[in-house]
Amino acid sequence: MARTTPSNAAKSEYLTQARGGPWVKDALRLLQLAIDVGALVLGFACGYHARLLLPFLPQPTTQPPFERYLPILILQIIIVIVFFYFSRLYHQRRVFARFEQLRSITGTITLSALLTNGLQELLFRNTIFDVNYPRSLFFYSWFFSVLMVALGREVYRRIEVALRRRGIGCDNLLVVGAGKVARDMLTRIRSNPDLGYVIVGVVTPPTEHQGKVLGVPNLGGFADLPRLIDEYRVGQVIIALPEAKRSELADLVTLCQRGQVDIKVYPDLFAYMAGDLNVDDLGGTPLLTVRDIALRGWKLSLKRGLDVFGAVFGLIFLSPFMLLTALLIRLESPGPVFYTQVRMGLDGRPFPMIKFRSMRSDAEKDGPGWTTENDPRVTRLGAFMRKTNWDEIPQLINVLLGHMSLVGPRPERPVYVMEFREQIPRYMERHREKAGMTGWAQIHGLRGDTSIAERTAYDLWYVENWSLWLDIKIILRTIYQTITRSSPNAY
């Protein structure tokens, strides 16, 4: 099939879809700065009044008027803004984790507050700006500043998303490649308008002469990249050629280096599966570490402690709702409340995984099989539980018994494991850790009927990069996604 050559009218349409031009992004940056400044002023004001109203710290009977603290407030705002800039909090990626952002905001404001406290003693003592800056005011202003800036960032994000959905402040995007990876990229970008991309077309290798790719026009070959970037005012290029040679990638990057274009390269399959590479030393001989399991030794005890605490707390807190669910299951269809299914866990050992029954009791009379859309075997209550993942809650019992962990690779049935191990490289390595109720793959939207190879890559990355903070982040993001039913890409 021949490549697509868009008309001048089509080009004009692409050029106008990302409405507003560079001035919109400049205006949004100024808006973010203004929201941060307003949040810092509001946070300090809340801290000023909280010192008189809240009983958590010693309460003074009086304090100097708010105007006396303006020099300290202005100094703190300047320091925070400078630190935000150098911490790249004004250069946010399109997809970011709210919890990571909150951690960055908290750390930056804490450091700024400490520096402000020291500088105000140095700069304002024995001047007309000298004022008592008590510890209680320091603490309250710090707390409310973190809170208000975090809320302000959420307000800004919602404004930015609303504008992007209307095509304002978007970037024209060009994808290099037409294979599976490129198609996955196109599908994901199309299903997430919040990212703010307008896909203008794809560019394919000289050997591939095909028309549209998933409805996206094929605009030409590699040599056409400089011209296409200029003609379509492309702001972002994604090179989705995981099997390309390094020399080819270097040439492509060189062709794309024009103006303010951002260039992203999808990693090759080996790097994608292996994760971060490290250099170790063995008796003076350097070795490239492809896999270094992060979860070992005392870290296993730490993770088990989190699992026991989380399982006990969850079972106690959720027990009334679990009892209600059990009653509703029995009222809707005859059969047991729980459904146990053999899954494969740590070191490939089988264990009985517990779930609330969401199907009729005779659902597998003809043998196991994947659930289909609008599956008639699923009960009405079961459909709700599956949609909200509530049917997975009894797995807290598995966690308490040591069969599973709160976080880890999701377990599969042995019949599917035998199938996947023959098809997916390194698939069995995900069984070197306990199976989890949720995982790194799941919070990135890889649930149900999604790519097993991609899920495996995410599971291996988790195994090799485990940390207590990573587990906590995954748990919090799972809870947030479940409650808000939000897209994983909104983090």
Could you give a quick summary of the protein structure above?
By secondary structure, the protein is an alpha/beta fold. It has 15 helices and eleven strands.
How do the strands of the widest beta sheet line up side by side?
A: 3-2-1-4-5
Please give the share of residues in helix.
Answer: 40-55%
The secondary structure category is alpha/beta
What is the molecular shape?
Answer: globular
Low-confidence stretches: 15-19, 269-293
Biggest sheet character: 5 strands, parallel
How many beta-strand segments? 11
Number of helices: 15
Give the DSSP E fraction (strand runs of 2 or more residues).
Answer: 5-15%
Note down, in words, how this protein is organized.
Residues 15-19 and 269-293 have low confidence and may be disordered. Helix 8 (246-256) links the parallel strand 4 (234-239) and strand 5. The chain is built from 15 helices and 11 strands. Strands 3-2-1-4-5 form a 5-stranded parallel sheet, sandwiched between helices. Strands 6-7 form a two-stranded antiparallel sheet. The protein is of the alpha/beta class. The chain has 3 domains: 8-18 and 170-266, Rossmann fold; 22-165, no CATH class; 298-490, no CATH class.
What are the defining features of this structure?
single chain; 491 residues; alpha/beta; Rossmann fold; 3 domains; 5-stranded parallel β-sheet; 11 strands
